[in-house]
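Recall the central idea of this unit: under ordinary conditions, the amino acid sequence of a chain determines the structure it adopts. In this exercise we apply that idea directly, starting from the sequence alone.
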Amino acid sequence: MNQFDGVLAVHKPAGFTSHDVVAKVRRLVSMKRIGHTGTLDPAVTGVLPLCLGRSTRIVEYLQEMPKEYEATLRFGIATDTEDLTGEITEQVDEVQLTEQQVHEALQSMIGTISQVPPMYSAVKVDGKRLYELAREGKTIERKAREVTIYSLEMTGWKPGIHPEVSFRVLCSKGTYIRTLCVDVGRALHVPSTMVQLVRTQSAGIRLEQCLTFEQIEELVQNGELEQHLIPADQAMSELPSFTVDEEVYRSTLQGKKIDKRHIHPVEDASVSGTPPANLPEQNDMSLFKLYGPEQIFIGIFRKDEQTGQIVPVKVFLPA
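Accordingly, the structure predicted from this sequence is:
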């Protein structure tokens, strides 16, 4: 049984659920301890970071980071799933919209907005998934949720009787791009649905960094997969980094508390925690990564404002 440790950037193909991808990679790498960092619908492709081994302990932090998508929506039709996998529930013969009108509608979505989760989603209500209820022909009231659209850029316009618009969006965890497409149409008083979606970035990992199943299998066979894993601390690029000296590091290994006076900002840019330029600051910034001598990653810590003590949250002690 292999003992890989790190974040594996997978290029999810269409037709696979996120759980299918985890199951597939488990077989490819011959290990069980794997977790994904954010669900993707079967029809959606793109970035799906998987945490292997001890790095499964950072899944909750990577899930909180913003995601970037490239999507296309079509005006003039609506479906029960909010995308082309569903049944058409409304259709108009011709849509009269200008590119400028659509651009303005997209821009109106930037900021904190409310979304009602679609019936065909994995949200649980009274212990049952919404998509299970939807398949039974049921529709229930759902509570609106606040999500954040950090940026939204129009990237293509295809006129016609049912025009289509393509856009790139950077958004918070929990954003339904299908619902965003419907909301854009609603703002323009026309039915609309999503026709295509690719996740291009998640947890700071871009699509061009991702590996296909075939590439993963080849790397495993050649004994080279470990070289392509992202270390847990590097994957948490949004967290600032601090360091302690040898003496404090040894006391940390003995379970002793650390005073805030003994930690210092990391100067090395490779571990300093600078987020990617196009990502907003995320997470509770009282959390930080702590390193010992020679950039040994100790773990995630936080500062107790009342006592001034440095408190461990997740410890990654070296073997």
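The longest strand covers residues 145-158.
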